[in-house]
Amino acid sequence: MIESKDILFFVLAFCVLWFTLFVSWLIWQVAMILKNVNDTVSDVREKLNMIEKAVSSVKERFEGVAGILGIVGKGVEKVVEYASEKRKASKDKD
Predict the structure, then answer these.
(1) pLDDT band at 49 (very low <50, low <70, confident <90, very high)
(2) To the nearest 10°, the Cα dihedral for 75, 80, 82, 88?
(3) What pLDDT score does 52 carry?
(4) Residue 2: what are its φ and ψ, rounded to 5°?
(5) How far from chain centre, in Å, is Cα 15?
(6) Which ranges of 1-94 would DSSP assign to H, the alpha helix?
(7) Of 15, 20, 12, 16, whose CA–CA distance to 4 is shortest?
(8) pTM for this structure?
(9) In whole angstroms, what is the distance from residue 79 CA to residue 57 CA?
(10) Distance between CA 76 and CA 94 in Å, rounded?
């Protein structure tokens, strides 16, 4: 015959089963959230690397242009200096 103690053990076993299923589901949900966070962080890192490459490319181009402008600036300076010497020389002749 089934005693009240047996019914208690069946109910406790059923409760343990449901608790185990709940804990397993909870662990699964936490794992999926962490996976999504990891995927998002990976995407952000990828985008930041692309932005960093673009910025460094633009920086290199500006550095190249700055070097050329420095050379052109020195050339213009020499031309202006030469022109001012010529004007001074022509004024001294007069």
Answers:
(1) very high
(2) -170
(3) 95
(4) -90, 125
(5) 48
(6) 4-93
(7) 12
(8) 0.57
(9) 33
(10) 27
Torsion (CA) 58, 61, 66, 72 in degrees, nearest 10: -150
Which structure tokens are listed for 79? 């031309």
| Greatest Cα pair distance in the chain | 138
Predicted local confidence at residue 80, as pLDDT: 85
pLDDT at 94: 60
CA atoms within 13 A on the CB side of 57: 6
Higher-confidence residue: 90 or 46?
Answer: 46
Query: Which amino acid is present at 84?
Result: S
Copy the structure tokens of residue 63.
């550095």
